[in-house]
Amino acid sequence: MVGYHPEAINEPLTSAEYSEAGLASGIVTRMIIQPLDVLKIRFQLQEEPIRGKRSGKYKGVLQSIFLITREEGANAFWKGHIPAQGLSAMYGLVQFSSFEWMSREAGKLIPSEDPAVRSTSDF
């Protein structure tokens, strides 16, 4: 849903269903992003430059993926996944449910059929 529209296209979702959708999206997003987050953190913690004479252990994305897999195994990309999964799940739940509530309240405060006013409310 983008913006609040009081006339339902189909049967409207409940707040609990919006919360469940947010929870599920947070979980799926974290599962997909976790390996990239591990790479990002490894690069951030590396003090040496990526290139040059005194370059660090990780030099590029593909090189880092192969190096981590060879040295630590594929499971290394999922280190710290459980705490991060909880954070992402709760963030998605709160984001979806609060967006739904705020959109509904904005629709009540700015009831208009004028498209310019409606797009401001949707924004």
What does this structure look like?
- This protein is mostly helical.
- Helices cover 65% and strands 0% of the residues.
- The chain is elongated.
Short description:
The chain has 123 residues and is an all-alpha fold.
How is the topology of this model organized?
Elements: H1 15-45, H2 61-72, H3 81-109, H4 115-122
Helix pairs in contact: 1-3
Our measurement of the CA-to-CA distance between the termini, rounded to an integer number of angstroms, reads 12 Å
CA radius of gyration is: 22 Å
- Mean pLDDT, nearest integer? 82
Encode the helix/strand succession as letters: HHHH
Largest sheet: none
The structure class reads: mainly alpha
Count the E strands.
0
Shape: elongated
Low-confidence stretches: none
Helix content: 55-70%
* Helix segment tally: 4
What amount of the residues lies in strands? under 5%
Key words describing this protein structure:
65% helix, single chain, 123 residues, 4 helices, elongated
